[in-house]
Amino acid sequence: MSEPRTTETTDSTERTTGATGTKPLLRIEDLWKSYGNEDVLCGVDLTVDRGDVEVLVGPSGSGKSTMLRCINRLTEIDSGSIYLEDMEVTAPETDPNEVRQQIGMVFQDINLFAHLTARKNITLGLRKVRNLSEAEARQRADTELERVGLADQADSYPAQLSGGQKQRVGIARALAMDPEVMLFDEPTSALDPELSNEVLEVMHELVAEGMTMVVVTHEMRFARNGASSMSFLDGGEVIERGPPEDLFENPSHERTARFFESIRHD
Ligand SMILES: Nc1ncnc2c1ncn2[C@@H]1O[C@H](COP(=O)(O)OP(=O)(O)OP(=O)(O)O)[C@@H](O)[C@H]1O
Ligand SMILES: [Mg+2]
After folding, report:
1. What predicted TM-score, i.e. pTM, was given to this entire model?
2. Could you give the CA distance from residue 234 to residue 257 in angstroms, rounded to a whole number?
3. What is the mean pLDDT of residues 88-97?
4. How far away, in angstroms, is 195 Cα from ligand 1 center?
């Protein structure tokens, strides 16, 4: 018979955990942001576990983009804190470039350099930020282009690509940094439905691979099939959060219900 195991002391941080027993990967605590007299984020709290996909919805001006920009240190917060595991993203001494390597972001506006090929758009950051050699960067870029289904477009310039392809290059560029979390701000809203679908397919693949994602989108099919959880923002506050089907079908708040009514009639 084996010896009874001695009781090990548990690290206290391990107990500040979510339902799965693991510490959330991303933690937003009491986040405030205003522009002039306008309070844009009013004490937002949100945690996202590793591998989870949080979809953010809410009316125009409710603070969704501002929230993503704060997570990525593109916008400085007024108060509160954001953590990526043990890194305090919002601490003044934290290097925003370090944050942006670990937290990738894809925007609605596809901001590729027009004078660079798809591959070069990706290798640029790898060379500068990651200090990879040209050959290593090129290999990494080609791997990521293949991942988003664009292996054959590495030498194309943005003007030669469709909107959906450009957006997929943007995703490949963010993925090339090997981020812990990917943020998406309405990645398909500038695209025709057909082109949206090819971008959504790539996003679904990332979900299947276990990528942790925070996604602002009006694509309710993506939310229904891809999200672990959905938050409804209004007036800079998370009014309601839960499984997507609960928010769609059984919202607790009238404002949430009204919002879903309005987008169904778009
Ligand atoms: N740089 C800025 N300077 C001043 N006001 C800003 C700035 N960025 C955002 N705002 C204001 O903050 C509020 C929230 O904007 P935000 O872009 O976060 O909303 P949103 O939920 O993403 O809206 P949409 O659905 O239209 O994209 C808006 O009233 C906006 O005008
Ligand atoms: Mg926005």
Report:
1. 0.91
2. 12
3. 96
4. 26
